[in-house]
Amino acid sequence: MCADDCRPLGFLLGLPFAFLSLLLSIVGVVIWIVGLLLSCLCPCCLCVTILVEMALGLIKAPIHVMEWFTSTIPC
Hints:
Layout: H1 8-41, H2 46-59, H3 61-72
Helix pairs in contact: 1-2, 1-3
């Protein structure tokens, strides 16, 4: 049935927070697209590169939230 790392309680408790981070990841996608367009126009701007890296972190947020909840809360 469940593997050794299966933690359904952590998964269920993390779902609302994963939904909120999913909304943040949508904002991250918009920032990422704008940042890519700006970096194509002016590739010498270092701040645009930092902005794109931050947006990628926001896009990966739901995965990190669910991994944290399932690792923190025991079965």
